[in-house]
Amino acid sequence: MIRVENLHKHFGGFHAVDGASLEIAEGSITGLVGPNGAGKTTLFNVIAGVLPPTSGRVFMAGEDITGLAPHELFHKGLLRTFQIAHEFSSMTCRENLMMVPGAQSGETLWNTWFGRKRIAEEERALAAKADEVLDFLTISHLSDEKAGNLSGGQKKLLELGRTMMVDARIVFLDEVGAGVNRTLLNTIGDAILRLNQERDYTFCMIEHDMEFIGRLCDPVVVMAEGKELAIGTIDEIKANEQVIEAYLGTGLKNKETA
């Protein structure tokens, strides 16, 4: 679904992404791991249109989407979440979800005067869909709670719920497990698996929790120094000496034998 070809993103003399090339297959949950500073989040930001590339191309389902703005990619079904959730803290969880779909009738002044019936009908439909999403994520008991009062893990679930309010085709998750307790992390993992298996979502996720990655992701892509270092199953990645060297600074061959 996504193909990245020789992508570069430079900040002055610093090459955050330095010739990365990779593919994300439709219907997969692809993990993206690597040491700090490997370029993972910058790669996400370039693919998702947050940052323009210095050079290289990004394709989605064969279409060149290089440099498109986030709102343009949103309408193509490419969504991205962030390590720190961006909720509307003073609004309820239901209202946060209802805000997501674009081109709502209530956004125009004309309709607020002459299209009140249409606005009311849309809002009822959006509220019903939001409640369905909250139920899917097992947080329906929080529907009327202010989003700012949620725990970090609950905010991550709410952010995942936003992707369900539109026709998402691929979702980029940036450290969805960061700061989340194990119980809620399992709930988030269950939701991701169900969205993948039942609703055909494609995911690519940055994550440092290798147990979480191992449960969800196949394949796993390892980045180091701004480019792809290795790709494979979690077991293949764990046994890859280049990966061990990138993470730990020494290969297995340099370990002293007893």
TrEMBL record:
Top EC class, one word: hydrolase
Domain ABC transporter: 2-250
Any Pfam family the entry gives: BCA_ABC_TP_C
Keyword list, A-Z: ATP-binding, Hydrolase, Nucleotide-binding, Transport
GO cellular component, one term: plasma membrane
MF term (GO), any: ATP binding
PROSITE patterns documented for this protein: ABC_TRANSPORTER_1, ABC_TRANSPORTER_2
Domain of life: Bacteria
Cross-referenced Gene3D superfamilies: P-loop containing nucleotide triphosphate hydrolases
InterPro entries for this protein: AAA+_ATPase (IPR003593), ABC_AA/LPS_Transport (IPR051120), ABC_transporter-like_ATP-bd (IPR003439), ABC_transporter-like_CS (IPR017871), BCA_ABC_TP_C (IPR032823), P-loop_NTPase (IPR027417)
Record keyword Ribosomal protein present: no
Enzyme Commission number(s): 3.6.3.-
PANTHER family noted in UniProt: CONSERVED COMPONENT OF ABC TRANSPORTER FOR NATURAL AMINO ACIDS, CONSERVED COMPONENT OF ABC TRANSPORTER FOR NATURAL AMINO ACIDS-RELATED
Protein name per Swiss-Prot or TrEMBL: Lipopolysaccharide export system ATP-binding protein LptB
Organism: Planktotalea frisia
